[in-house]
Structures are given as structure tokens and as C-alpha cells.
């Protein structure tokens, strides 16, 4: 049975879209059509922004509720999401191939956690009063920034959506969300949860569509802030538009992070964490460490361990509990990954496992490891967004730092060592927004984001909330 929607969630209601255009949803494992939603048009974005604007400007509305009241509403929203947790995980896995065990953590668990985390943050927040140096004092008042245009990709659709909308809603903003066309069924289920939770009209609106629709939302005069996660190319174009408009923007873009294996490592002991940092979600996570930097003295041994890891990965139906790796999201994405594998071989990389397709049907690519990759090779520089690792040799710590930092990206990174203090010292030398020692995890409390071509701004933590707030200084006792 397919899942088909005919209406859009706008202004707190399910309403007929402005056109008859439809987005079909295709399973990446079976290539069968599994559902559809209406494709949003510019007119639908106009209606959504208008609803969000009215909700934001209402003097008795969401933006003016106290933090505790918004936190209570978000707690109800979280409950409704939790009630749909298994269905959400199922829809995400069916649409983008994420292994169901991972979807249960990232896609059903994390969104509710973020609503609770940011709800608690605003429920307790009070204006800060700072004693002045010139006499008097200053109230530092924080107010919601306004209507937020949120644009998300398909790879971890619910978690990434809530990195944006949980702090935005908690801050008192209203939101127009544009999900990626590949993953829309989860977004509509999320809208059902919002309806059931009684979220006020216009506070959250969902309009699915492609890049032109996203670009229209970015430039819309009724939008006060843009929050984007996706490719660096799209991010540059959005940054240009927002620069012209002087519109605040948060950009979470691509990555080519390094897993730096130090010479004292016991990699076999941490192999599960290493999988999580390098091959999770079929290689389709922005912060994955797809460059493995190995010391020359232990190079062959590290290549063997990484090769065994990839070779022993269970590839198959994303809906099976035992699957560790599913298909890539689309035929286009598989073509792209295969073309990088061919380039890697042409440049002199040596495939130690994988390199081909897995199975007869669906967009499966075998987990692939390249040895003898040099830092200047294309596969060591460009984001592949698939299960392809490059093992690069380094001579000493300075050489490892130089190779790690030679990337145009700077999003994630990991250091692998039996000496955690040494790892932490080393981590400070890596030019990146986030780095893990012997593992990697996005904790809600820890600011997440990149430098260089990986974007600007931070999500998660209190920093994630403040990016949806204006700061106003109110001078007291100034004579
Ligand atoms: P993409 O940039 O093609 O699309 C992402 C989203 O933006 C989609 O909703 C798309 O419709 C929309 N979009 C595309 N071009 C646009 C434009 N010019 N204006 C407005 N909206 C536009 O990316 P993708 O291929 O779907 O996703 C994979 C990319 O996302 C990878 O590069 C990955 O690294 C990145 N990503 C980054 C993070 C992060 O937090 N840094 C997280 C996940 C994914």
C-alpha cells in the first residue's frame, strides 16, 4: 500500500495545494513507488510565509508567549512525535535507505529530545542584567528573530529538521519548512504530530519541493532568517542571496573530515565506533571521516583493519534490524559515487574491497576502501557522499595535521589513540568545527557546525538557540 497525501500543512490546517503537481516517492531498495505528496509551488510558499508572518506578528501569539508556555506546547509536540516514532523511522528508511536501527535513534528519538532540550532552555531563561562600566546597567533582552525559512536535505531528514525548528520554535519564531523531495513522507507525519499536538495556526508550515522552490523561499520578502543544510554549491548560492538581502543565514554544508589514527592506536578495540565515524548511514552524513590518515609505520595493518570492517559490513534491506548499510538514496547519487570510484582508480588508488554494486535491484554500492591514496587525489579532496574511504599515509604528527587541514572543508574529524590526553591535545590542532576522540556523536548540548567551505553558524547547544534571537540592549539609569 502506498502512502499518498493530497493536501499541504499550512496555517495549522490541511489545505489543497495551489497546483496539481505531485512529488512521487521511490524506494531506493526496490525502486517501487511507495507514496506521493503534493509538490509545493511559489503560491504555496507565499501562503505559508503569509501564515507564518501573521502568527509571528499576532500581539497575543506564539512570539509573545512566555518561555514556559512555549515549552509546554513543544513538550506536547514531542509526545506526539514519540507516539509516531516507529512509523517515522520506517518512513525514513523506506525513502532514503537509512538502516532502521539508525533511523530509530536519529529520526524518531532525536527530534523529541531536541524539543525537550530547547523547551527547558527557554522555560528557565530570564533577561540578563549587566552592570555598566560607565554607570547604570544594561538589560540584554533576547527576542525571536521572526519568520524562519528552513531548508533541509534527505540524508537525516527529521534530525536535521529539528536542529532548526526546535530552537527556532522555542525562541518564539515561526517556521516555513521546505523538505527535500526525496524525503517528504516523514515531514508530513511530523506535520500530523504538530496538528495532534495543537500547535497554533501558522507557527509551523511545510511546503515540499526542489531547489527552485527553496531558492524562492530564501529570497521571499516575508522571511527574516534562513537556515540551510545541504551541499556547499547550494550554500554558496543561498549565501549570495542572503548577502544581498542582509538576511541572517546559518549554513551547514559539506565535509571531507579526517579520521587521524595515531601510532599508539588499538583500532580493533574501537572498531564499532570507527564504523560510526566513517561509514554510518551508507556513507551519507556530512561529518563522516572519509579520509583515514594512517601512520606510515603501521599503514598496512590499518589498511587491513579498515578493509575487513568494510568487507564484513552487512549490506541489505534497510528495514531489516540486522542491516548495517542500505542503498544510496537515488540512482543519481549511485552514479555520482560510482564515478568517484572510477576516478579514484584512474588516479592510482588501490581498491582493497568493494568498488562495485551490491544486489540486482536498488541503488546499492559495496562499502569500498581505497589504499595508496594521496592527499591531492580527487577522492581525497571532494565530498563523495557514499560508502567510500580513502586511507592516506602520513609520516609524523605534523604531517598528519598538515594533511588533515589541507581540506577546503572543516566540519568533523576524529582522533584514534590509546592516550586520550594526547588525542585531546592533537584535536586542538585540527581546523574543523567539531572533533571526537575515539568516536563521534552530535550531543544536543554541543554546538555543531563547520568552518571554511563547510558553512557558517552553529546548531545545537545554547548557540543553536541564539541564532534565532535578536539581542537588544536596554540602557537603565543612564543620565
Ligand atoms: P542539496 O544542496 O542539493 O539539497 C539540500 C536541500 O536544499 C534540498 O531540500 C534542496 O531541494 C534544497 N536546495 C538545493 N539547491 C538550493 C538552492 N539553490 N536554494 C535553496 N534550496 C536549495 O544537497 P543534497 O545533495 O540533497 O544533500 C547532501 C548534501 O548536504 C551534502 O553535501 C552534505 O554534506 C550536506 N549535508 C550537510 C550537513 C551539515 O550539517 N553540515 C548535514 C547533512 C547534509
From TrEMBL:
The keyword Oxidoreductase applies. PROSITE patterns: ALDEHYDE_DEHYDR_GLU. Residues 14-474 form the Aldehyde dehydrogenase domain. The keyword Oxidoreductase applies. InterPro entries: Ald_DH/histidinol_DH, Ald_DH_C, Ald_DH_CS_GLU, Ald_DH_N, Aldehyde_DH_dom. Keywords: Oxidoreductase. It holds the Pfam family Aldedh. The active site is at 252. Belongs to the aldehyde dehydrogenase family. This is Aldehyde dehydrogenase. The lineage of its organism: Bacteria, Bacillati, Actinomycetota, Actinomycetes, Mycobacteriales.
Amino acid at each position: 500500500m502506498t502512502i499518498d497525501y493530497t493536501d499541504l500543512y499550512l496555517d495549522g490546517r490541511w489545505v489543497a495545494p495551489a497546483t496539481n503537481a505531485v512529488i512521487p516517492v521511490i524506494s531506493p531498495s526496490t525502486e517501487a513507488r511507495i507514496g506521493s505528496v503534493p509538490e509545493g509551488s511559489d503560491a504555496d510558499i507565499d501562503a505559508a510565509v503569509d501564515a507564518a508572518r501573521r502568527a509571528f506578528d499576532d500581539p497575543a501569539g506564539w512570539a509573545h508567549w512566555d518561555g514556559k508556555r512555549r515549552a509546554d506546547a513543544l513538550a506536547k509536540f514531542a509526545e506526539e512525535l514519540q507516539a509516531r516514532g516507529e512509523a517515522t523511522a520506517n518512513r525514513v528508511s523506506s525513502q532514503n535507505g537509512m538502516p532502521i536501527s539508525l533511523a530509530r535513534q536519529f529520526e524518531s528519538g532525536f527530534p523529541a529530545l531536541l524539543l525537550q532540550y530547547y523547551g527547558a532552555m527557554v522555560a528557565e531563561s530570564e533577561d540578563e542584567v549587566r552592570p555598566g562600566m560607565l554607570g547604570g546597567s544594561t538589560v540584554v533582552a533576547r527576542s525571536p528573530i521572526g519568520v524562519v525559512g528552513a531548508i533541509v536535505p534527505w540524508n537525516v531528514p527529521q534530525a536535521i529538521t529539528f536542529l532548526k525548528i526546535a530552537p527556532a520554535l522555542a525562541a518564539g519564531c515561526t517556521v516555513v519548512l521546505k523538505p527535500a523531495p526525496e524525503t517528504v513522507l516523514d515531514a508530513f507525519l511530523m506535520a500530523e504530530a504538530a496538528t495532534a499536538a495543537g500547535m497554533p495556526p501558522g507557527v509551523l508550515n511545510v511546503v515540499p519541493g526542489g531547489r527552485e522552490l527553496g531558492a524562492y523561499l530564501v529570497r521571499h520578502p516575508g522571511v527574516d532568517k534562513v537556515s540551510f543544510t545541504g551541499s556547499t554549491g547550494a550554500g554558496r548560492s543561498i549565501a549570495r542571496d542572503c548577502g544581498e538581502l542582509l538576511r541572517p543565514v546559518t549554513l551547514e554544508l559539506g565535509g571531507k573530515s579526517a579520521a587521524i589514527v595515531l601510532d599508539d592506536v588499538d583500532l580493533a578495540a574501537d572498531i564499532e565506533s570507527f564504523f560510526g565515524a566513517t561509514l554510518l548511514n551508507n556513507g551519507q552524513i556530512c561529518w563522516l571521516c572519509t579520509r583515514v590518515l594512517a601512520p606510515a609505520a603501521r599503514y598496512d595493518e590499518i589498511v587491513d583493519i579498515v578493509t575487513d570492517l568494510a568487507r564484513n559490513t552487512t549490506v541489505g534491506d534497510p528495514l531489516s534490524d540486522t542491516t548495517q548499510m542500505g542503498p544510496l538514496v537515488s540512482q543519481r547519487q549511485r552514479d555520482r559515487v560510482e564515478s568517484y570510484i572510477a576516478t579514484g582508480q584512474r588516479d592510482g588508488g588501490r581498491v582493497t574491497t568493494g568498488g562495485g554494486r551490491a544486489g540486482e535491484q536498488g541503488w546499492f554500492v559495496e562499502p569500498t576502501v581505497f589504499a595508496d591514496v594521496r592527499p591531492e587525489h580527487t577522492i581525497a579532496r571532494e565530498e563523495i557522499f557514499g560508502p567510500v574511504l580513502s586511507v592516506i599515509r602520513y609520516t609524523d604528527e605534523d604531517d598528519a595535521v598538515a594533511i588533515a587541514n589541507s581540506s577546503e572543508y572543516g566540519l568533523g574529524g576524529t582522533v584514534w589513540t590509546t592516550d586520550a590526553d594526547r588525542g585531546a591535545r592533537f584535536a586542538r590542532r585540527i581546523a574543523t568545527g567539531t572533533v571526537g576522540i575515539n568516536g563521534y556523536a552530535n550531543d544536543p548540548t554541543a554546538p555543531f557546525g563547520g568552518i571554511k567551505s563547510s558553512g557558517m553558524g552553529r546548531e545545537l547547544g545554547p548557540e543553536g538557540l541564539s541564532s534565532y534571537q535578536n539581542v537588544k540592549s536596554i540602557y537603565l539609569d543612564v543620565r
